[in-house]
Input
Amino acid sequence: MQYSYQALADQLVQDMQAGRRPTGERLPSVREGAAAFGVSASTMVRCYRHLEAQGWVQARSKSGIFVADWRAQRAARPSVKVAAPVAAPAVAFEHFASLQQRMSELYSLTAQPLRMGLHLASAAADWYPVEALARMGQRVLRSNPRALGAYPTGTGLPEFKAALIPWLAALGLDVEPEGLLITNGSTEALAVALRAVAQPGDAVVVESPAYFGLLQMLENLGLKALEVPCVPEQGMSLEALEYALEHHSGIRAVVAMPNFQNPLGCAMPESHKRRLLKLVERFGVTLIEDDAFGDLCNQAQRPQPVKAWDRHGSVIYCGSFSKSLAPAFRVGWVVGGRHHARIASLKLSQSLVTPLFEQAVLAQYMQSGAFAPHLRKLRERLAANLPLVLAAVQRHFPLDCRVTSAGGWWLWVECAPGVDTLAVLRQAVGQGVAFTPGVLFSAMGKHGNCLRLNVAQPFGPEMEFALATVGSLLKRHSLVL
Amino acid sequence: MQYSYQALADQLVQDMQAGRRPTGERLPSVREGAAAFGVSASTMVRCYRHLEAQGWVQARSKSGIFVADWRAQRAARPSVKVAAPVAAPAVAFEHFASLQQRMSELYSLTAQPLRMGLHLASAAADWYPVEALARMGQRVLRSNPRALGAYPTGTGLPEFKAALIPWLAALGLDVEPEGLLITNGSTEALAVALRAVAQPGDAVVVESPAYFGLLQMLENLGLKALEVPCVPEQGMSLEALEYALEHHSGIRAVVAMPNFQNPLGCAMPESHKRRLLKLVERFGVTLIEDDAFGDLCNQAQRPQPVKAWDRHGSVIYCGSFSKSLAPAFRVGWVVGGRHHARIASLKLSQSLVTPLFEQAVLAQYMQSGAFAPHLRKLRERLAANLPLVLAAVQRHFPLDCRVTSAGGWWLWVECAPGVDTLAVLRQAVGQGVAFTPGVLFSAMGKHGNCLRLNVAQPFGPEMEFALATVGSLLKRHSLVL
Output
């Protein structure tokens, strides 16, 4: 009989529940089991992973797979205490079919208190000018409390637009106030941009790996994601993009982060940016440029966005201060090119207007001239932090891991083929540590052996602990293979 | 030859441009023209309206229709100065095909400085506790500036949810924190609710007249609006709703404002609310209840929402503080019933999270116990204001206008059949006064002889002037008919 991994797992669970395989018994190794049950080694591995994830078995480093104390484990509440950092994960994990479910799992896994969460896009709170922003916020409230009672209208606070436009001009963007729409973060900017150019059923090209929030957004909008590979040194492969544009007629847009792509951190060289723009123009599709990380280079000179060369309104430019200046403010913007009127209408019927208080504070902050010095400092911190994190990764991670560190915000780690970083994450959260598993960065289930680490957190003992924890789990998982 | 109004208008324009009908010439009256050109009186009226809207002719009260100084008028820039309040509108108006365009026209008309704008949903800024909110905002910023640097996650600030839940409980809603999602105003709440239950091409029942933002939202989501008449004393006609549900198979949801409907202001009696719930349950459709005006009764006792009787999660409840407490904060919420998980996912991929600062301030405000006294005062103000506005409307408006004033926020005025309130608005803005024309409250172009007045502004000489202006324009338009 040819077992599927699930049928084999069910069989083993029945054996355990009936007492035929008691707690503590050593189970066959992958090689032995494959022979004994007449399955391939990879089916055997998937079976054990599944059982381990559900708490039925335990993999012990260097000694093998054992029947776990599953009665206790499965009875435990689905929460992990940091006070018991060595406890195995007590959550009964499901086998997840879709990206939505994988994302839900990430959210529920990381909802518990963690010693070190490297899974989010956040930097250390005190890397931001929080005192200055709070002071200016107090001033705004003191000087004009009546504004809180006014029903807001329009596409953004005029003072904020006036402060933002010179900043955008310095990046090479020629924007009028009417061509600029302030949004609830760049997430909303992306959402209205996509809705403006694509209808349900249309296809959109994304980078692979791609930011999982974008993939979820496409799924929720009924759009198909065509995943075009990203190369660390160059960003989206333009050869692959050209091939995709030639072979699919239903492509409406290309979504790309040419500056410090999430999760690879790579920046597209200027020559590639110009080629990318020509390519989308040749095929008559829109480029939606997500520049949320553009300011977060670990170099002194911030690279220009593709939008800087756009003369025909082919690029919808999305930006944000959520990463560079004020994470809690949720203020982003969109410069919609030839789609701007439609974008503004969609924003209006999606959330009316963006709160004005945050915009008033940001306007004051920019007018004060403090933004450029703040960014310089933030970039220096990122640049100083990265080598420390990289060295720790090299100390702790398996030797065959390939690390990409093109930007200053992320590390993208590619482990040996077959390593399941989602399974590793489930164990890591049991020890108070989280990262983002690679499988979240693809709607096709690619990148399962990769992981993303947020390195915009000051390096110290906690991060050392976190990286050591993840490294040792990765080594153990490599051994089981 | 049988002219259409457009062909007749084109013919008259040619005559004017060729000098055959010089500036200042009196044109035939409606009756004379109808006979002379062989058209019906209503075609003649539409023709003159169209020409007047485009600046070709001028209707002079009690004396007739004259060829305008169209060279000067049509050369003028499309802006209206308040400094010259008696000037005729200089905007070359288009004939509008869709609701989107009608809304754009309203926005551009009202973008200019106005003496009195009665077209928005705003109340007087000092009717809100702006000083207290500003003070609490300063305290929030002083006590925890670091929060501004933290990347927000989750479905709402826990403290705000904790303060909101007892408030909702007092309305009869049994809500857990996980079943409550904080949104960017009730606009976003409605948008994610609609996206959760309906796909492009589906039909959604709305009240008629309905809030134009809702109609625009449906249009932008590719949903069909089925307009079911609203009766001032009872809200949505349940007989008409039942008929619609029986005769259309593609209806996914009913969107209703059972408490103080926008624009009618009517409140559905409790017996009708129970019947409405039973009806949607019988047909297996979702009720999306917009309760944004629920707190704004001009009675002491606030009516319960339909959600209070919902035992099967059939009602998606949307609320907001934008009308009742803090207009500039843009904080709303949704209790999604059986659709809640899907709604939360859509919100996440639409705008990630709602800014936390505003929620922190609102949490403090509610904890302080000041909300109930504030609401009492706001209701008293609305209740005291309404009779003054009503009396002025009766003084100035044509006698055949029918006024609905069930709530305390709006007046809905139905003028004689044939009066085009959009044309009246174009002239009113020239005199610095705006209201909302009825045609915006229907995707089918109904209610063209109606208008909505915001009466949540303290009555005084400015409002008297505004109502006198609108009233005299309405009288003049009635005369032309």
Remarks:
- Residues 76-97 of chain A have pLDDT under 50 and may be disordered.
- Chain A has three domains: 5-75, 99-126+373-480, 145-369.
